[in-house]
Amino acid sequence: MAKRTFSSLEIFLIFLLLMMTAITVALLTLLFTTSGISEDNKGPSSLATQGPTATQDSSTNTGPLPTQQPPVTHGPSTHHQGPPIFQNFSGYHIGVGRADCTGQVADIPLMGYARAGQTARGILTRLYSRAFILAEPDASKRVVFVSIDIGMVSQRVRLEVLSRLQSQYGDLYTQENVVLSGTHTHSGPAGYFQYTIFVLSSGGFSRRTFEFIVDGIVKSIDMAHRNLKPGKIFVNKGNVEGAQINRSPYSYLQNPLSERDRYSANTDKEMLVLKMVDLNGEDLGLISWFAVHPVSMNNTNHLVNSDNVGYASYMFEQEKNKGELPGQGPFVAAFASSNLGDVSPNILGPHCINTGESCDNFNSFCPIGGSDMCMAAGPGKDMFDSTRIIGDTIYQKAKELYATASQEILGPLSAAHQWVNMTDVTVQLNSTHTAKTCKPALGHSFAAGTIDGVGGLNFTQGATEGDPLWDSIRDQLLGEPSDETKDCHKPKPILLNTGEMSRPNPWHPEIVDIQIITLGSLAIAAIPGELTTMSGRRLREAVQKEFETSGRQNMSVVIAGLCNVYTHYIATYEEYQVQRYEAASTIYGPHTLSAYIQLFRGLARAIATDTVANLSRGPEPPFFSQLMLPWTSNQVDRTPENTTFGDVLHPAKPEYQMGEVAEVVFVGANPKNSAENLTDHTFLTVEKYENTSAMWQTVHNDASWDTRFYWHQGSSGQSNVTIEWHIADTTPPGLYRIRYFGHNREQNFLQSAVFPPFQGTSAPFWVVGAYHEPTTN
């Protein structure tokens, strides 16, 4: 494909961009090097108690993590022992817990697409941390798996969670037996990272969001710990149809034909479900692993939500927790991520959004408009409908597998963990040849984005040569990559040599978690990134063979994605050669997958031979105490003249039919004010009047799929809130109302801000029979 030329106007605009970027980088560097972040600069656990005054601590520490002991060999801690342990049964102690971790829903970027301007402006569904604790009958060994409705788990979040668990439970729950996995929704708030590239894309470090995520994870583990009871676990597997496509099929085709011929599709369609019940057969919880990107909500979305897998959790939990509001009830259903790196839910495939023609080609390129016009579409009439359709497809299969699960999991629990410097792993390719991993770097095609969300900066997927203009801009602003890094990453043309960028903090992690936990014959490999389809298959097969060779027969291996620390993508060596987005985002070079396979085989061998205690602990990851403040300012909220917060500006209609949308507009305030404390909060309720009790009963909140909360920012601190209720066909007729709950920011000169609560209530309205679309003859 011919190189694109630039007009004089484009060159002038790029020059302006270059100058503005240089000034911005200089100011940010000055900020980093002269001050810490006021909310957080004392290492793990400081955020829970620290006041607003900054101190000049050292910029890096390792945090108060415990000296490593094999935690799965210890009995119950003297701290928070939980319920009495009943030992004489066959199965496991099972504890489940779910806690809110939504955080800030306004004035913060959404994490995933890294699209400028895609900030949160409301909420579609709440985000949850779902924890599962499994312990052997005598409680001598236990493991923890947590699935969290966030883009990915950051190293900073994991270190803080581990620190707080140590404070509460001693060495009962540590880095070895606790797995934290992100669902990878692209519609959750950003701002909870410590490595510079993520801090910049997040618009700074958000104390609010970080605290909500950490607090939610710890609360969910606490709940699971308190809820431990004897039970049984059953496993089932089955294929999901109609929920995914491979978004980089041309990369997949680079893998050997003999390997591809072993599989019927270029995505992994298999779903694995764990069914958890108590000894009386009462349902406790579910974990499902299935490979699909939660990107049904595209990069034009501004509402915080958990996307398609979150919808599946919502549906399963509503089914099992009859009569409860979303997010409430004892049953917990987690739909966890797997090897989803090249897997899209937008099953209609890529098309040029300006012409409608297919752009399913090697470069995902449109004749008119280039790569920026090539986008994949989901099956619905809009992104909300596509999310529902894909989520329901996943839910229906999980429901079927859960109902028919009969193979019980029995056997010991095990866990193995190491910290590894992924920039310096020697890989034994065969008996005579070795290779090494590289310092982190991102290729040019990283900036192109994918058919699920394009980059928008004149980059294309599949670039194996650099662009002189962008390379020159990089060299001037950030420095030229070293020859060593260039050679190590070939054929990747390096756009950002992040492994050689350390100001104000390192841009990418060097120290990475690798981890396996086992439940009887099931091994869960906790991967710190996004494996492509074939990468996941190779790693699963290698780990399974290692177990078999080392004496553990008939082991099944499941991939848990986006665990513990985020390191972008992991493509196969062959996929790496053509440098589409996933390969350009494989930051440790062409042998990244081989390194992970070698390392995870070592963990499997240690578990199988009962030599986990002999594993090297590895170098502890850093904890950076000086991080950039959020870029958005805090503004006092104000109301229009002659109004107060919560007043109705646009009332509901007197009557609606099922299938219609009830809408109310209120005088509002910035929703981020409600994230200043960690108390439970909902921004809205839909309430039904019950004649028998003469009381209003809440039937929906802001965790419901049927409600939408939009925040519209005006000028001079004024804003409006629009609440929509999409009235389902199953809604009972009756009298309803919509309520809004918020907090407004008040601040007097030289005084701390306060956030008084307020509320607003619509006039009552009726819901009557079903709505029918008008027809035309």
TrEMBL record:
Entry's transmembrane regions: 12-32
GO MF, any single term: N-acylsphingosine amidohydrolase activity
GO biological process, one term: long-chain fatty acid biosynthetic process
Domain Neutral/alkaline non-lysosomal ceramidase N-terminal span(s) in chain numbering: 92-598
Residues that bind Zn(2+): H184, H293, E530, Y569
Keyword Electron transport recorded: no
Superkingdom: Eukaryota
Biased composition (Polar residues): 41-66
Active site (UniProt): S344 (nucleophile)
EC number: 3.5.1.23
Key words, A-Z: Hydrolase, Lipid metabolism, Membrane, Metal-binding, Sphingolipid metabolism, Transmembrane, Transmembrane helix, Zinc
Residue ranges of the region described as Disordered: 41-81
InterPro entries (UniProt xref): Ceramidase_alk, NCDase_C_sf, NEUT/ALK_ceramidase_C, NEUT/ALK_ceramidase_N
Substrates-to-products reaction catalysed: an N-acylsphing-4-enine + H2O = sphing-4-enine + a fatty acid
Needed co-factor(s): Zn(2+)
Similarity section: Belongs to the neutral ceramidase family.
UniProt cross-references to PANTHER family, sorted A to Z: CERAMIDASE, NEUTRAL CERAMIDASE
Name of the molecule in the record: Neutral ceramidase
Gene designation per UniProt: ASAH2
